[in-house]
């Protein structure tokens, strides 16, 4: 089971790792990630939530005007500065995980490396988490809810040959400085705030 999960993770991330060395040099096209992950990109009012590890399952969740209004209000609290917006993004990602949980069955999604839950509906690995966070942030960006950041393509680190387990995360770029940040909701369970850290620091960290 462990090897099967590793193999699927490598297939899911393979193009990202091989083509761009963990995508550490450029943002790339965030929308192109959905071709790599075999996921479905966000629409104006719907996200396709990945779960089951490696985006095996994709559950459509429609967002009402009340939902998008709440998302806008959460992100508006960060308009004063880039740092404030990153804090607002963390709150929005946590809110979204709670929002989709009843429809996806992910309320008890466990954080971190949890291979025995592979292929279990509602459980998410880093591919699922990176895809879902990117979907949410793209929806927010399209609607004009982000002032200080743009959404990047998910990035990855580790490919076994370097002794590290493959791991992916969503990413954002600060407009003013060009500095990139990981938005990583994988280490914690459902509805918890993600780690938002400088991408360089994230790339060097072992979980």
Describe the structure.
The two termini are 21 Å apart. The chain has helices spanning 2-20, 33-36, 65-76, 82-104, 126-142, 199-203, and strands at 46-51, 57-62, 149-157, 167-174, 180-184, 195-198. The protein is 39% helix and 18% strand. It has six helices and six strands. It has one domain (2-203). The protein has 207 residues and is α+β, with helices and mostly antiparallel strands. Strand 4 and strand 5 (180-184) form a beta hairpin. The longest helix is centred in the middle third of the chain and has 23 residues, at 82-104. The strands form two sheets. A four-stranded antiparallel β-sheet has the order 3-4-5-6. The chain has a two-stranded antiparallel ribbon with strand order 1-2.
Summarize the structure.
The chain is an alpha+beta fold.
Labels describing this entry:
207 residues, 6 strands, 39% helix, disordered N terminus, signal
């Amino acid at each position: 089971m462990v090897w099967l999960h590793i193999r699927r993770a490598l297939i899911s991330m393979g193009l990202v790792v091989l083509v761009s060395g963990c995508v550490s040099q450029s943002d790339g096209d965030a929308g192109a990630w959905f071709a790599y992950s075999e996921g479905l990109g966000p629409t104006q009012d719907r996200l396709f939530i990945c779960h089951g590890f490696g985006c095996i399952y994709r559950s459509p969740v429609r967002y009402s005007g009340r939902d998008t209004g709440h998302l806008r209000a959460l992100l508006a609290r960060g308009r004063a500065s880039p740092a404030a917006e990153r804090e607002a993004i963390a709150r929005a990602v946590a809110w979204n995980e709670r929002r989709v949980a009843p429809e996806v069955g992910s309320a008890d999604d466990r954080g971190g490396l949890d291979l025995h839950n592979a292929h279990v509906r509602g459980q998410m690995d880093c591919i699922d988490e990176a895809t879902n966070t990117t979907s949410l942030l793209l929806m927010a960006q399209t609607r004009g809810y982000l002032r200080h950041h743009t959404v990047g393509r998910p990035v990855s680190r580790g490919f076994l040959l370097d002794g590290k387990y493959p791991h992916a995360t969503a990413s954002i770029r600060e407009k003013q400085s060009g500095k990139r940040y990981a938005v990583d909701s994988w280490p914690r369970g459902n509805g918890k705030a993600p780690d938002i850290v400088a991408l360089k620091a994230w790339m060097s960290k072992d979980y």
